[in-house]
Design brief:
It is built from five helices and seven strands, in the order βαββαβαβαββα. The protein has about 170 residues and is α+β, with helices and mostly antiparallel strands. About 30% of the residues are buried.
């Protein structure tokens, strides 16, 4: 997964106040609500960063939000926990990802995820983490991420992870 190439009519940029956040609709109310009401606030407070895919009409075709977090050693599967210190460990968090209803079915979700993972990988060169984690809203979302080698965390069927080792292998 080298460079991510978005359609010619779209470009990715960091969320700004003037972006039409209120008009974004992806079919998942929680995803729409986050972008409309929380994403910019959290970004301003340095809690997360949201990147939006803007089309030629100035509409948001899709977005993702990344943050950092921690996970307890005991929540990890044995194969990942092996040889790690028994404490709270750093993770990258893919907090939100959505594609506007008008642009679904064009592969934008896959491209946004690829770029989000690339951003995590690049950040990991400076601020290391053991995995990228995310929470799925439903079974179809879970299936989408599992296609990218995300796996369940033990005891949390809708919390998935991708180890930093797997991410490195994807990027190299």
């Amino acid at each position: 997964m080298n460079g991510v190439v978005f359609p010619a009519d779209c470009h990715l940029e960091r969320l700004r106040r003037e972006h039409p956040r209120q008009r974004f609709r992806c079919g998942q109310q929680a995803v729409d609500h986050w972008l409309a009401t929380k994403a910019l606030q959290h970004q301003t407070k340095h809690l997360s960063v949201t990147k939006v895919l803007i089309d030629d009409d100035g509409a948001i075709a899709g977005y993702y939000t990344l943050a950092t977090g921690q996970i307890d050693f005991s929540d990890l599967p044995p194969e990942l926990a092996k040889q790690l210190p028994r404490r709270v460990l750093p993770v990258a968090v893919l907090a939100w990802l959505g594609v506007d209803l008008k642009r679904q079915g064009q592969g934008l979700g896959r491209l946004l995820l690829a770029q989000a993972l690339r951003d995590c990988w690049e950040a990991g060169k400076t601020f290391p983490f053991i995995a990228v984690i995310l929470d799925c809203l439903n079974a179809s979302t879970k299936k989408f991420y599992q296609h990218w080698d995300f796996a369940e965390l033990p005891g949390h069927p809708y919390r998935l992870f991708l180890s930093a080792k797997c991410l490195d292998a994807m990027m190299n």
